[in-house]
Amino acid sequence: MVPRRLFRCLLLGAAALTAGCSFNGGTVRDELLQQSGGITYELTDTSFYSQTTDQCGPSALATALNAAGVPVTPDELAPSVYIPDRNGSLQFELLAATRGYGRVPYPISPDALALLGEIQAGRPVLVLQNLALGFAPVWHYAVVVGYLPGENKFVLRSGEHRRHLVKTSRFLRTWRRAESWGIVLLPPGELPAGNNAAAFVQAVASLESVGQFEAAAAAYLAAVAQWPEHALAWLGLGNSYYALGDLDDAGDAYDELLSIEPDNVVALNNLSMVLADNGRIDDAIRTINRALSLTEQSGATHELVSRTRAELQRLRISD
Amino acid sequence: MQNTLIWRLGVILVMTCMLSASILQPVIAAVISTEAAIELETRQTRIHHINNILAQEDVRIMLVRMGVDPVHASARVEALTNEELQTLQQNLNELPVGGVGFVEVVGIVAIVIIVLELLDVTNFFNQF
């Protein structure tokens, strides 16, 4: 009995391995075919900058920024993203440069269908590839601009090739070795394909944290229109308006958030600041007291809220 | 190295002064930022603030050592979020730096793959 059971296990293992292999090839292809409906998607208008030497970062970024409505060249980008002694560019710096142009760098889900989804929505995807092997990596940035279901190939703006055709399985292998990292650059107000509110809001928050408040506000507005129950999007909207000095709209955004989550301490804290700035100091103190009653005695939140309360009380005395 | 150390000591000194001053003087309240709200429950914000300044300087120095123009390096670190800075401070040398030329790719890939193929480690050429 035991050997037979062992044999069955081995068979199952072999089946699982085979399934794994077909997942790499067949299944993904089937899914791509299904999602594309057999239709070719190619963003032929996407610009191209032939890569000189090792500057694929600036070239790929310029291509993607152009598609997002920013007229910029690789030469203009190089001082912001190129690292001379490492002969290349860091992913984080591509994100940072994107934010600098008021665009939201949105990391797509690491899978082929999400990639195709963005191309179908008309947005090229800037990807990182490892063209060699895990232990001997050769990192390369390219921009995916199309999918040809008939030929089972992706179309890339890559290196010196304006229209680089790569077999799906081959492209996916090089992409997976770079953790399937890909970004789309969204003009403010544009939402990514898919329906991942948290990922989008996080991407917008990065814009806000480097002081791009106008772009952030526009992006948050689109987010709350699409996901009206998403608390963090309302918070971000309020904070961006506050940073821009638009107290009324900031207060409205915090109110909206509190109608969804009445006990949101951060919203209460920030609303109290708006009320104080509007001269409504008693309402402000009532609001901050409520916030304080909702926090634990220790911890960073308590400390921040206590600080706000002390400031508001000082304001009331000086009145 | 010594510059970094002196800079760090300087920053710590300045931050200590600022923190003690903040205890003596009226506190300044502020809107809690969205980034802070995301990480609020997990980190001590004040300690975090000092770490961010140190990370910013560390990463700036690393970039300059790797050939980035000092004039651009400051602006480049300021464009990074706190989370990105912390990651770069710890892992900059291990992170992917994409930028290979096409000819170089062909060369490296071919050599590695051919060697592996000869050793029967891969079966690359049969797949295409």
Tell me what you see in this structure.
The complex is a heterodimer of chains A (319) and B (128). With 319 residues, chain A is α+β, with helices and mostly antiparallel strands. Chain A has 13 helices and eight strands. In chain A, strands 1, 3, 4, 5, 6, 7 and 8 form a seven-stranded antiparallel beta sheet that branches. In chain A, a hairpin with an 8-residue loop joins strand 4 (125-130) and strand 5 (139-148). The longest helix of chain A has 35 residues, at 2-36. The N and C termini of chain A lie far apart (89 Å). Chain B has helices spanning 2-24, 34-39, 45-65, 70-78, 82-91, 102-118; one strand spanning 97-98. Chain B contains six helices and one strand; from the N terminus they run αααααβα. The chains are: A alpha+beta (319), B mainly alpha (128).
Question: What does this entry show, briefly?
Answer:
By secondary structure, chain A is α+β, with helices and mostly antiparallel strands. Chain A has helices at 2-36, 56-67, 74-81, 91-100, 112-120, 168-176, 197-209, 213-226, 231-243, 247-260, 265-277, 281-293, 300-318, and strands at 41-42, 89-90, 104-107, 125-130, 139-148, 153-158, 161-167, 182-186. In chain A, strand 4 (125-130) and strand 5 (139-148) form a beta hairpin.
